Amino acid sequence: MIDYNKALSCAIKDMKPSGIRKFFDIAQQIDGVISLGVGEPDFKTPWLIRQEAISALEKGKTCYTANAGLMTLREEIAKYFQRTIHTSYDPNSEIVVTVGGSEAIDLCIRCLIEPGDEVLIVEPSFVCYRPIVSLCGGIPVVIETKAENEFRLTADQLREKITDKTKLLVLPYPNNPTGAIMRREDLESIAQVLRETNIIVASDEIYSELTYSGKHCSIAEIEDMRERTVVINGFSKSFAMTGWRLGFLGGPRELVSQMLKLHQYAIMCSPTVSQYAAIVAMRSCEKNIETMRNEYNIRRRFVVDSFNRLGLKCFVPQGAFYVFPSIKSTGMTSADFCEKLVYSKKVAVVPGDAFGECGEGYIRVSYAYSLNHLREAIKRIEEFLEDIKNADLQKT
Amino acid sequence: MNQLIKLLKSNARITNGELAVLFDKTEKQVADEIDKLEKDGVIKGYSAIVDESAYDPNSVFALIELKVTPQSQSGFDEIANQIASYEQVDSVRLMSGAYDIIVSVTGANIRDISQFVSQRLATIDAVQSTATHFVLKVYKDNGIMLSSDDEDERGLISP
């Protein structure tokens, strides 16, 4: 008999399944659940982009592309970096088109981290950083951001966690799940700390197009930071293209050329049809982004207002499409709150601790849904809170 | 398009209080803005978007192209207004191109509309000819998808 336990690597066996998975399984079993739990846009990919993909298929554009991606697309990405974060990258050697932002994150961590290296991970944040670091034998060092700082990373917090083993800082802003952003002045103080070190920044900017109080600022824009930053972005959130699996990264050629080796062996190249469509996205769809952003912004105000009205305190997020209200006033844990809510009112939201321990006491609510959908969900949450209050009253 | 107008077009029953939240304004500011849109004639009224075929499966909707001889004093205006006065007429538009006026009409059945065209429209002196097109199915109306099987294909939860 084969012993699979012996066959599998310890690193993968030790890897914890995503905290979201467990809750997903619960929600899945219940009929008629309405969800506020999805981390992807509700918009369809703009028709112009879809049409370009159809046309690429019709023309039989079905072969591999260059490993780093179609040159035309890389040139468009270089222009995009220039016009959005005012930073120049050479399309020949400093840009790789990846399979979603996720692959870019993976490349970045795997190409930099050796056993024993420390990686600073800002939390609450997206779920993949920690497991990939551990898989490389690296040591995830969590920096817990706080509601009172609007979930921003502060220079003091950063300085406190740096040791001579620190190799990489994962900086995920605009942030999933909190909706926090880093303003230029916040990034400048972070840069001040990093300037003295040899630490590289993996700046995950996948939500960069979704900010609601001025344009997004990247740490790569700050003086001396371009040379120590890998900017990670993609088409999923900005152009509503999650299923196309297309992201990209830009960074100094010394790093990117090494990452390209891994990308060559592991992936070969990103999906060709998606790449052709993405050229059109870059060239002609700025207006679509704006329309979606305006729509999200309206929903954001509605959701923030609703939660604060219901007494679940919620700081005003300036980015992404999530709000992160505190449920501490209910006395429940995040997991408890979410389970009870989905069982009794059939509304699915994600427990905050799925994004790091410091997310305990919060829930992540996505507003990538129509206003009518959001209204109905909020109504049910309101009923849920009423029920709790009444139950508490009966107890006393 | 102005976002306020867009929202009102998709849901005219939304309250000023709600709009104030959505646009981060005071209720008074919203009321003033709507007032101005109404006074300027941008917003002409508020109505429900009805899928007529869902309400009455027999009802028929038609577009009628008219070629019209313009009148010496009033051009097309007088004829267009005359046609617009019939209650079964939903809309009247002056067009560039192969014909002059397009009229949309809702009727209880095909005969209803045929009678309207032959007895009311074709008999107007200035009308040279008519071409009636019956609508078979409406997919999108007033910016709203009517026959959409657009389900949310996303999972319940994702990171």
Walk me through this protein's architecture:
The complex is a heterodimer of chains A (396) and B (159). Chain A is an alpha/beta fold and 396 residues long. Chain A folds into 2 domains: 4-44 and 287-387, Aspartate Aminotransferase, domain 1 (Alpha-Beta Complex); 47-284, Aspartate Aminotransferase, domain 2. Chain A is built from 14 helices and 12 strands. Chain A has a 7-stranded mixed β-sheet with strand order 2-8-7-6-5-3-4, with helices on both faces. In chain A, helix 9 (184-194) links the parallel strand 5 and strand 6. In chain A, 48% of the residues are buried. Chain B has helices at residues 3-10, 16-23, 27-39, 52-55, 77-84, 110-121, and strands spanning 60-68, 89-94, 101-107, 127-134, 140-141, 144-145. In chain B, strand 5 (140-141) and strand 6 form a beta hairpin. Chain B is extended. The two termini of chain B are 33 Å apart. In chain B, 14% of the residues are buried. The A-B interface holds A 18, 20, 23-24, 27-28, 33, 35, 37-40, 42, 126-128, 176, 294, 298, 301-302, 305, 348, 350, 354, 371 and B 3, 7, 11, 18, 21-24, 152, 154-159.
In short:
With 396 residues, chain A is an alpha/beta fold. Helices cover 44% and strands 12% of the residues of chain A.
* Helical run tally of chain A: 14
CATH topology of the largest domain in chain B: Alpha-Beta Plaits
What is the CATH top level name of the largest domain in chain B?
Answer: Alpha Beta
Continuous helix count of chain B: 6
CATH class of the largest domain in chain A: Alpha Beta
> What would you report as the Rg of chain B, rounded to the nearest angstrom?
20 Å
Multimer state: heterodimer
Q: State the share of residues found in helices of chain A, binned by percent.
A: 40-55%
Order of strands side by side in the largest beta sheet of chain A? Answer: 2-8-7-6-5-3-4
